[in-house]
Design a protein that fits this description.
Blueprint (H helix, E strand, L loop, with lengths): L2 E12 L13 E8 L10 E7 L8 E6 L7 E6 L8 E9 L12 E7 L7 E8 L7 E9 L13 E8 L5 E7 L11 E7 L10 E4 L7 E9 L5 E8 L11 E6 L13 E2 L8 E2 L3 E5 L7 E5 L2 E2 L5 E2 L3 E5 L8 E4 L4 E2 L10 E5 L4 E9 L5 E12 L1
Antiparallel strand pairs: 1-28, 2-3, 3-4, 4-5, 6-7, 7-8, 8-9, 10-11, 11-12, 12-13, 14-15, 15-16, 16-17, 18-21, 19-20, 20-23, 22-25, 23-24, 26-27, 27-28
Amino acid sequence: MALKIEKEFFGVVMSPRREDVYDNGGGVLYPRVIELHHAGEKNGMLLATFDYYTIKEPPVAPIYCSTDHGKTWEPYSQVEDTKNGYGIRFQPVLFELPVQCGDLPAGTIVFAGNSIPLDFKSTELLFYISRDQGKTWEYRSSVAAGGPPIEQNFDELGPVWEPFIYLNAANEITVVFTDERPHTDRSLNQTLAVTSSKDGGKTWENEHLVVAIPDGMSRPGMAIVTKLPNGKYFMCYEIVCFPEEGDPYFDVHCRMSDDGMDFGDPAFKGTRIETADGFYLMSMPYCLWVPQGGENGTIIVSAKRDGDALRLRDPGDFLVNYHLGEGPWERVPMLVNYDSSIGQAGWSMGMCTIENGTKLLQLAPTQMDTRMLQISYGIGVLKSE
């Protein structure tokens, strides 16, 4: 058997106005989306968030909602930086708790985002909770704090980036994030770290490194984790590298964990995600397991680029795996299209299943023109054939 995704609907979540955003970017990036399953009469409602580079300070993380299975979207709420007052500037992520965690009941919505001042002097991953399905938000804790959001700034404390939230095997809230603070050891350029909370996000355990390649050049980042039906945790991430000799690369890799915390030797690069004939993905992956496609279901991975090509992805390809992450991958058309040579189009796309797991929703930054981006979506029916 194999997975088929039958495209059903395409639309736009949000289009920024040029006058509302900074001139040096596309306005929006980094969409994330969830469907609510523990919300009583609000089950099936969708919540989405994304980077919004508004000139209004301090910035907030917008929350949009859909009550018609993703066909239409409207502003719903916003997450404000009530700890530092700097603004939630980058990399927001949402998660609905499926079980009670500490004093937080199932159905609580949790959020993490990067608090960064306008002078770009620091980074801090802040954790928020919502007790009313994302309508209002409370600051809960700080997951990790770092230096200025500048890559390879070896003369200062490195930044923390790109959080992703899930539950580990002990049902503890877990955050994997990109951690450049270890670059004080010049053998480590950028790393991935993981931490968990035993008390519902009030406090966090000491983080440990998940991917830390001691070659001084490799930059693993943008990790996403999905749980498989055999209980294992599948993590995908990019490795960016600009070697002194040879071409730069941005290949997407993966690794496994039994408990969602220990992903093996951090020095191991992981396994590159590729087909039997060598087709692979590059940059900013997202992964999701779905039950369709065979007895093991299917792992779906998206990324900004096909190989190292910068070109129109119309619609481009997911890579999918029918064997719980083992062996080669196969190509399945994506649900959104964009020109990957235009700025940051396709930058870190988000996905979730909707309508009782029968359909796939994919969000992506797509081009409005040669500079401006909007958050677009595609909906497809998931079928086994």
